Amino acid sequence: MSDPFLTLLPGLPPPLDRLHDGQAQVWRGEGRIEPGRSPAARLALWLGGYPRHERAGPLRLVITPVGPDGAVHWQRHFGPHVTRSRLTRAGARVMERFGPVTLVLHPVATGAGFALTVAGARIFGLPLPRVFWPKAEAREWAEAGAVAFDIAARLPWGASLIRYTGRLRPA
Fold it and tell me: Are the CB atoms for 40 and 109 separated by under 8 Å?
C-alpha cells in the first residue's frame, strides 16, 4: 500500500518511491528549520506543533501506516522536538493534519520529484477562506540516492511562517 503522495504521483524516482511506499520506516539525515518570528507565525506554528526556535542538526522521520485507506502518520524529529502529522488522500489532493490544522495539498510531478501548493486549509475542521490560506513553495526531489526537501510557507500577507530544508536517507 502506498502513501497518498505515491498514489497520486506514480513513477517517482527511487528514493522518493521508497519514502512514500506506505510502509513503516525510519529515515535520518540533517535539516534546518527556520520558524517565522511574527506573532501570527508563532501562533500558527504552535497550533501545528512545529518548533518555535531556529535550529540545524539531526533530523529523523518516522513513518507509520495507520489504516486500510493508505493514511500514514509522520513524526518529524527536529532534535528533541517532535512534529506529528497525518496524511490522507482526498480525490486528487493530499490532506495533512497537524493538530487542529489541516492543509489541503496539491502535488505536481517535477523531473526529479514533486512540488506542492496549498489548495485549502481548515482549522478545527472548519474551512478557512482562501484569503487566510498559507502560501507554500514546497518540493521534494531525489539527489544522490537521498530525498532532499525544501519546504517554505508564508502567511497570506507575505510574512514568513516556516522554512525547513534538508536531506534524508533510510535508517
Answer: no
Torsion of CA 146, 150, 151, 152, to 10 degrees: 170
Residue pair 155/44 in contact (Cβ under 8 Å)? The answer is yes
Q: What is the pTM of this model?
A: 0.92
Tens-digit pLDDT profile for residues 128-147: 999 999 999 999 999 999 99
Give the number of other Cβ atoms within 10 Å of residue 111's Cβ. 8
Q: What is the pLDDT of residues 162-171, one digit of tens each?
A: 999 999 999 9
Residue 144 is classified by DSSP as T
**Residue written as cell 496539491?**
106
Q: What is the number of other CB atoms lying within 10 angstroms of the CB of residue 30?
A: 12
Question: What is the average per-residue pLDDT within 16-44?
Answer: 94
Q: HSE of 56 in the Cβ direction (CA atoms, 13 Å)?
A: 4
The C-alpha torsion from 71 through 151 and 75 to 91, rounded to 10°, is: -10
CA distance 20 to 87: 11
Residue with cell 493530499: 94
